[in-house]
Amino acid sequence: MAQAGSENKEPWNEETRAKFEGKSRSEYLDPCQEAAQRSIRCLHRNQGDRTMCSDYFEAYRECKKQWIERRREQKRKAGALF
Predict the structure, then answer these.
(1) What single DSSP character describes residue 53?
(2) Which domain holds residue 39?
(3) Count of helices and strands (H, E) across the chain
(4) How far apart are CA 45 and CA 72, in angstroms?
(5) Sorted alphabetically, which keywords does the UniProt record give?
(6) Are 38 and 55 in contact (CB under 8 A)?
(7) Is residue 4, in this structure, part of any structural domain at all?
């Protein structure tokens, strides 16, 4: 099975928060983009065989999950309704 790498960089940290809050509304920011790119590269290396890349997909899902949870937490702390 493919190795997803040993990096466990927090997707929602102060640096990411500052970038996210400082961007324009039309600009897209995904702190999990690196994990997404690894998944795509794995698919290319393995001729589209998703079973060979399951670790990469799981790392991406976990990154997104952490990011969304941290965003919700930040909004709750800030008292935002949405």
Answers:
(1) G
(2) 32-82
(3) 3, 0
(4) 36
(5) Disulfide bond, Mitochondrion, Transit peptide
(6) no
(7) no
DSSP SS3 for 46 = coil
User: Cα separation of 55 and 41, whole Å?
Assistant: 13
Q: Could you report the per-residue pLDDT of 28-77, keeping only the tens digit for each?
A: 678 898 999 999 999 999 999 999 999 999 999 999 999 889 888 888 88
Residue 5 main-chain phi, psi, to 5 deg:
95, 160
Q: Is residue 6 part of a domain?
A: no
Residue type at position 36: A
Q: Which residues contact 12 (CB under 8 A, 6 or more apart)?
A: 31, 66, 67, 70, 71, 74
Please tell me the distance from the alpha carbon of residue 29 to that of residue 77, in angstroms, as a whole number. Answer: 21
In a domain, 13, yes or no: no
Distance CA 14, CA 48 (A): 35
Distance of alpha carbon 40 from alpha carbon 76, whole angstroms: 34
For the whole model, what pTM was predicted?
Answer: 0.64
